[in-house]
Amino acid sequence: MSTIKDKVCFITGAGSGIGRAAALKLLAAGAKVFAMSRTQERLDSLKAEAASDNLAIGCGDVCSEADVQAAFAACLERFGTVDILLNNAGLGVPTTDLAEAPLEKFEQMFDTNVKGVFLCTREALKVMRPRKSGHIMTVISMGGQRTNAVAPVYCASKFGARGFSGGLADQVLAEGIKVTDLNPGPVDTNYWGDRPVAREKFLKADDVAEVILFVFSQPEHVLIREINFDNIAFFKK
């Protein structure tokens, strides 16, 4: 049997939402966590709440090659390895009128949701491949499987992340590295801002963190390729 205890987990977007909830849950289960976020204040808040010697933090942007390399170097210096990568950092902006959609918003979403996943995965593989073990999970969302008129660019970036993750699995499964796509439906996080949506029908960040812990706690021989899940209330009228 495998356990999450003492595994080193590198988490992006760990300052809030799903990433923060996952960091706290994994720490409580005995994992060692390196939390990366663009916002130092959020990382400091996480560190204060966790109050754990098993938590290390690093401020940086997953869109920056230099920031990602520095964060992984700091993780290796502190913990010596990376057993798990949780690609969680994500960005979504509505693009309800593609004729007026700013190129800047397109680039921001693809930089975070695709380029960021690539950069972090590349660094993790440098550690995992020589050992022929490791686990890479990417929080993609159901937006990578079903489109909608409100966020076509966001969906396109998530379809891209899903394609990247699938190709990654094709490359590394034979080397003993597990790859999982996590596809939650709408989650009640800061992602939604002040948009008029029924957040009471959404999943909570802690719900997603519970699923993340479940996947990472499976025996070494068990591979969960993909999980799709929603709050049942989302479908009720």
Task: Give a written overview of the molecule.
There is one protein chain. This protein is globular. 43% of the residues are buried. The longest helix has 29 residues, at 103-131. By secondary structure, it is α/β, with parallel strands linked by helices. Helix content is 42%, strand content 18%. A seven-stranded parallel β-sheet has the order 3-2-1-4-5-6-9, sandwiched between helices. The chain contains six helices and nine strands; from the N terminus they run E-H-E-H-E-H-E-H-E-H-E-E-E-H-E.
Question: What attributes does this structure have?
Answer:
seven-stranded parallel β-sheet, 18% strand, globular, 6 helices, two-stranded parallel ribbon, 237 residues, alpha/beta
Strand order of the largest sheet: 3-2-1-4-5-6-9
Written as H for each helix and E for each strand, in order along the chain, the element string is EHEHEHEHEHEEEHE
Weakly predicted, low-confidence segments: none
Strands, count: 9
| Beta content | 15-25%
Radius of gyration: 17 Å
> How many strands, what sense, and barrel or not for the largest sheet?
7 strands, parallel
The amount of helix comes to: 40-55%
What class, by secondary structure content?
Answer: alpha/beta
Mean pLDDT rating: 94
What's the multimeric state?
A: single chain
Q: Alpha-carbon distance between the termini? A: 42 Å
Basic shape: globular
Tally of DSSP helical segments: 6
